[in-house]
Amino acid sequence: WSDHRKRKFPTNFLFGAATSAYQVEGGWNADGKGESIWDKFLHDNPDLVADGRNGDVASDSYHQWRRDVEMLRELGVDFYRFSISWSRVLPTGFENEINEAGFKYYDNLIDELLKHEIQPMVTLYHFELPQPLQELGGWTNPLSVTWFENYAKLVFRRYADKVKFWITINQPNTVCMEGYASGIMAPGLNSKDVGGYECAKNVLLAHAKAYRAYQTEFKKKYEGNVGISIAVNWFEALSNTTENNEAAERARAFEFGLYLDPIWSKKGDFPDLVKKIVDKKSTEQGFKTSRLPKLTAAEVKLIKGSADFLGMNHYTTFQVQPSQTQFEAPSVEDDRNTEYTQGPAWRAAKSPWLKSAPYGLYKACLHLNLNYDYLPIIITEHGWSSDPGLEDQDRVDNMRGYLGALLLAMEDGTEVKGYTAWSLMDNVEWIAGTSERFGLYEVDFESEQKTRTARLSALVYKHIIESREVEDAWRPSNLKIAITKNDKKNNYRVEL
Ligand SMILES: CCCCCCCCCCCCC/C=C/[C@@H](O)[C@@H](N)CO[C@@H]1O[C@H](CO)[C@@H](O)[C@H](O)[C@H]1O
């Protein structure tokens, strides 16, 4: 695990930084933008936000996008992962009413990126459904599959010539289980028994329809890649007992297998383990049909193989044992029956769920290799939360630890094509507001321009990108960052 051989990222490995629309853009109702579920959720529940800062203004990227691109140039990244706000371009969610001013914002951003040879990696859906669609049931309505497909096609049509990396949906696990089951994210539904699973089915179908549409209409001409980002944190047994090993297997199946298996497993469909548990409990609980919806043979076929790459969002590791308390039933929690802890000695970030355990990334990568036949991966998010402050040594240590683990996983056969730091800048961390800072750049939320200043981690990341290696002892002489010409900039056409 820790020999001292020098390992380097290959020259065609891509480095990037990420944000999402609600978290950075602000301009929540500017120039004809419609209301999204996050606008409504936090306007209706202001007390939910830890420090009261919601996404109304956020980091003001709606106006500060030139500075954002300048920061990306300072870092020397190959690509910028950002999301399009569905409500900004289609205020009602439907394609009959297009907000040209909203599209203009993304036109400007994309053109500015390309002008500086930074590739746009566009996420079509990062947690923000247009509110009018939520009022029709949101992702629990089977029509959501068509709503998303139509929206995706419209955006593909507009940008297929400029955007070569697409992510359909960010973290279906979060969208469904935190939005519809636990309700701690928008739209805040508490449908612990059925809603989360219905959402999972529809989100997967929506993703697959968008993928197939790209294949049919755009792939040949534009040769872009379409993937999906899934939260793949690592879940392992708290100790080596049969009960704990089985609980860890359940955690992996419910937390990410539910979304990975239908796309990448040999037979497609939801994991057998999840089907077996939910089907059995549903019968015992008096349901006539399983709370886990069935995928028809045609749906299994549609979803299977519907991605050019896995966008892996990885932050941390959880140690798993069977739940020590009885969950309310019926519920996803009761189905999964797990309890998570984290190593007491692991360094803790500002977010209560986030501790540093780089070996977990290595194990997760090997797990994916073994179970999903060496699928191509781009790390589409990894990051660390802190208090404000420019000397973020913890973030630096975390990034170095995880990039070191990634190099080992690649050496051991994992097909990783790129890495994305979350986040380019401080932003609205959902209900944590701005109380948890994830940025390589600090944002002064009190200032008029939402002034951005490079942290130590920005300089270290820049050095890693330039040198393509992780040097623990490297430190800049000061915290000034400037744009350097990078002749070796990657040509983004990655072979997947
Ligand atoms: C003894 C302590 C044990 C702590 C156990 C806590 C149990 C918590 C239960 C699980 C909670 C899961 C938390 C994991 C969350 C991340 O995977 C998720 N937040 C990643 O989402 C992306 O992360 C960014 C930073 O949070 C976010 O800003 C971005 O929008 C998301 O795409």
TrEMBL record:
Record InterPro entries: GH (IPR017853), GH_1_N_CS (IPR033132), Glyco_hydro_1 (IPR001360)
GO biological process: carbohydrate catabolic process
Protein EC: 3.2.1.21, 3.2.1.46
Enzymatic class: hydrolase
Pfam families named among the record's database cross-references: Glyco_hydro_1
Keywords: Glycosidase, Hydrolase, Signal
Catalytic activity: a beta-D-galactosyl-(1<->1')-N-acylsphing-4-enine + H2O = an N-acylsphing-4-enine + D-galactose; beta-D-glucosyl-(1<->1)-sphing-4-enine + H2O = sphing-4-enine + D-glucose; a beta-D-xylosyl-(1<->1')-N-acylsphing-4-enine + cholesterol = cholesteryl 3-beta-D-xyloside + an N-acylsphing-4-enine; Hydrolysis of terminal, non-reducing beta-D-glucosyl residues with release of beta-D-glucose
A single GO molecular function term of this UniProt record: galactosylceramidase activity
Annotated family: Belongs to the glycosyl hydrolase 1 family. Klotho subfamily.
PANTHER family to which the protein is assigned, alphabetical: GLYCOSYL HYDROLASE (PTHR10353), LP05116P (PTHR10353:SF36)
Name recorded for this polypeptide: Cytosolic beta-glucosidase
Organismal lineage: Eukaryota, Metazoa, Ecdysozoa, Arthropoda, Hexapoda
